[in-house]
Design a protein that fits this description.
heterodimer; A: 112 residues; mainly beta; B: 117 residues
C-alpha cells in the first residue's frame, strides 16, 4: 500500500538545526518532496529529490534519502523563527505519477 | 515562474447555496489540476484530478454531483460546491502540473477558506 508517516511535532531553538523525518512504504516512488505550509496559507514546494539520489543540498536545506530503509529527512540549518510552519513529506509512486501521497505534516516550532 | 492563483481567498456563504472557486495557472499551461481539501491541523485530502478538456477523476468517497469540477482551458479549473452545508466548511487548495517543468512537480495555489453558515 501507499503510506507516508511523519512525526507530528518538532520544537527547536533559534539557530539550531532542525531535522524532520519521514518514512514511506512504496518502494517504487519516483520523486519525494518537502512542502512548507505557513499558517492559513497554501503550500510551498521547498525541495524534491529523485529516487536515484541520496542527498540534495540547497542553501540551508539538506535532503537525505535512504532508499533501503525508505526514509527521507529534511535538515534545516540555522533554523529561524520564520521557519516555523508545517512541513509535509510527499511521494509520487511510479505507477500513479499524477498523484501525490502525503504525510500528515510535522509542525515545527522555533523558539527564540 | 510557476504561479497558481485561487479566487476567492475566503468566502462565507449560507447553507443551501452554491460556491465557485477558481484556480488559475498564471504563467504556464496546466494539463492537469488537482483539488484538495484540508481540515484544521490535518494533511491534504485529494478530492479529484482534472485534465483539460475531459471529465474529472474523483477520489473514493468524494461526491461528484456535489463537487463539480470543470477544467475548460489549460489555465483554468473551477470547483463548484453545490448546495453547501456547514460540514463543507474547509480549506480548499488547488494545484497544477504542466508539461514544461519537471514531470511530476505540482504548484499549489494559496487556498480558499470556505465557511458555510
Amino acid at each position: 500500500g501507499e503510506d507516508v508517516e511523519q512525526s507530528l511535532f518538532l520544537s527547536v531553538r533559534e539557530g539550531d538545526s532542525s531535522v524532520i523525518n519521514c518514512t514511506y512504504t512504496d518502494s517504487s516512488s519516483t520523486y519525494l518532496y518537502w512542502y512548507k505550509q505557513e499558517p492559513g496559507a497554501g503550500l510551498q514546494l521547498l525541495t524534491y529529490i529523485f529516487s536515484n539520489m541520496d542527498m540534495k543540498q540547497d542553501q540551508r536545506l539538506t535532503v537525505l534519502l535512504n532508499k533501503k530503509d525508505k526514509h527521507l529527512s529534511l535538515r534545516i540549518a540555522d533554523t529561524q523563527t520564520g521557519d516555523s510552519a508545517i512541513y509535509f513529506c510527499a511521494e509520487t509512486p511510479i505507477r500513479n505519477n499524477r498523484k501525490l501521497i502525503w504525510g500528515l505534516g510535522t509542525s515545527l516550532a522555533v523558539n527564540p | 515562474g510557476a504561479v497558481v492563483s485561487q479566487h476567492p481567498s475566503r468566502v462565507i456563504c449560507k447553507s443551501g447555496t452554491s460556491v465557485k472557486i477558481e484556480c488559475r495557472s498564471l504563467d504556464f499551461q496546466a494539463t492537469t489540476m488537482f483539488w484538495y481539501r484540508q481540515f484544521p491541523k490535518q494533511s491534504l485530502m485529494l478530492m479529484a484530478t482534472s485534465n483539460e478538456g475531459s471529465k474529472a477523476t474523483y477520489e473514493q468517497g468524494v461526491e461528484k454531483d456535489k463537487f463539480l469540477i470543470n477544467h475548460a482551458s489549460l489555465t483554468l479549473s473551477t470547483l463548484t460546491v453545490t448546495s453547501a452545508h456547514p460540514e463543507d466548511s474547509s480549506f480548499y487548495i488547488c494545484s497544477a502540473r504542466g508539461t514544461d517543468y519537471l514531470g511530476y512537480e505540482q504548484y499549489f495555489g494559496p487556498g480558499t477558506r470556505l465557511t458555510v453558515t
